[in-house]
Amino acid sequence: MTEYQGMGKESVRQNRVIFNDTDVLSSFLCVNSFKTVLDVFAHKGYKPVIPLVVLDELKATDATRQLLAKPIEAEIRKGTIYTEDIMLETEVFDTYMNFKNRQGLGDGESAALSLAIHTPGSAIASNNLRDVEKAVADYHLELWTVPDIIHYAEEHSIITENRADGLWKKMVQHGRRLPYDTYQEYLQKL
């Protein structure tokens, strides 16, 4: 097991870890509903971990994206979210480079997948199905997408159905790629 910033090895053994990619986090952050993600992960007993590469992606571009990173940084300071770096000359680093160079995945997807593969019992949160689907299947990883999180939150009364529908619509308006235009359409396809 790896040791996360602010979390000792004993804590990691007692809780499952979910490694987050940029797209899931930014989807909820852009509609001011980051708490929904945290509530779902807490309900599932996950310790949310953000690869440092993902945190860098959130902060790297323009002022708007930097604002998205602020709530995450606040949760890191509070100890509700943890970060993990990929160290050179490790198996995780080799896997990370394989995903980036041979499979053409982005930094965030590569980091989240690599850390999850080398952390037994962990899961991954990513909305880039086209990019991560094969690795998720090959390594038998549990995958959480934006629709999965919204549906779980609604199904377990973390948010109402109206709130789920509102979040979905706002995400679509913000250009987030979701499989259907509305949450109601998604529910009909389940």
Plain-language structure description:
With 190 residues, the protein is α/β, with parallel strands linked by helices. The protein has eleven helices and five strands, in the order αβααβααβααβαβααα. Strands 3-2-1-4-5 form a five-stranded parallel β-sheet.
Tell me the total number of β-strands: 5
In terms of DSSP E residues, the strand content is: 5-15%
Content-based structural category: alpha/beta
Strand order of the largest sheet: 3-2-1-4-5
Overall average residue pLDDT: 88
User: How would a textbook summarize the main sheet?
Assistant: 5 strands, parallel
Helix content: 55-70%
Low-confidence stretches: 1-13
Instruction: Give the helix tally.
Output: 11
Order of helices and strands: HEHHEHHEHHEHEHHH
Shape annotation: globular
Radius of gyration: 16 Å
Termini gap: 36 Å
Fold blueprint:
Elements: H1 9-14, E1 16-20, H2 22-29, H3 34-44, E2 46-51, H4 52-60, H5 63-78, E3 82-84, H6 91-101, H7 107-117, E4 123-125, H8 129-138, E5 142-144, H9 146-155, H10 161-173, H11 183-189
Parallel strand pairs: 1-2, 1-4, 2-3, 4-5
Helix pairs in contact: 3-9, 4-5, 6-7, 9-10
